[in-house]
Amino acid sequence: MKLELSFVSDLVCPWCVIGHKNLRTAISKLSDDLQINVVWRPFQLHPNISAEGYDKEALASLKFGGKDRAKRYFQRVVAAGKEVGFDFRSNKSKAVPNTLDGHRLLWLAEQHQDSTTQTAVAEKLFAAHFTQGRDISSHEVLASVAAECGLDQADVLYFLKSEAGRAEVLQQEQQARDMDIMGVPTIVVNGRYLLPGGQDPDTVVVYLKRLAKTIQQLQEEVPLCAKM
Fold it and tell me: Are 67 and 57 in contact (CB under 8 A)?
């Protein structure tokens, strides 16, 4: 059976990094009878951030109610990252960037390559932002990351300087909000079934197995109903 998983996320969401790591682990535990294809779908946590970005410490203080709480939050993120093999370095960057162009790049990767390339780009962008402290709103940084994943750097720069993909990304994001997705990460299976939050691998495995069984049963019942 084939399942299409839409991984709804934002590129500045640390729990999306962890959620995707857990998803990959879960997929590796599933049998070959269950074929999984993962595509990335946008959800901007801070769509109104300017091109210059927003001071990360100030935003965290506002969000968590002070610097001390924000510090404890980042410590939790770092610890959770270590558990899944990801190196969060909160001191590397000073600003939270606007992620619209990053999502446009993911859209481009899917259109001109495939979901495997799209995933490679997403993982590189996570590392660029959270580990290396690079500005992933910069067209030059985005094009450089894309080139590392096999896309043509000059073509990507030309794309980013245009308006191409903008309407499509915003439409995809609106579709997520229309499904009452209010936070990320969220996994959408076959465009219909939602698994919210960064679930641990075993929970994802159980969910996908049960869902696949339910879908299979429904598919088997449809022909029977048609004959009645």
Answer: yes
The answer, as to whether pTM is greater than 0.70, is: yes
Task: Please state whether beta strands 2-9 and 193-196 pair in parallel, antiparallel, or not at all (unpaired).
Answer: unpaired
- Measured between alpha carbons, how far is 68 from 133 in angstroms, rounded to an integer? 22
β-pair partners for 4: 37
Sheet of 35-42, strands arranged across = 35-42, 2-9, 186-189, 193-196
Tokens representing residue 129 in the block:
């932002």
Give yes or no for residue 83 having a pLDDT over 90. Answer: yes
Nearest to 13, CA basis, from 96, 72, 87? 96
In this predicted model, which residue has the larger pLDDT, 115 or 40?
40
Residue 101: both structure tokens together: 């162009």
Find out whether 82 and 18 touch, Cβ atoms under 8 Å. Answer: no
Q: Is 61 exposed, middle or buried (0-12, 13-18, 19+ CB in 10 A)?
A: middle
Strands 35-42 and 2-9: parallel
Q: How far is it, in rounded angstroms, from Cα 207 to Cα 210?
A: 5
| Nearest alpha carbon to residue 56 among 3, 1, 106, 12 | 12
Q: How far is CA 151 from the centre of its chain?
A: 19
Amino acid at 4: E
Residue 227 pLDDT: 43
Phi, psi of 38 (to 5 degrees): -110, 125
Average the pLDDT over 6-34 and give the result: 96
In total, the chain counts a number of residues equal to 228
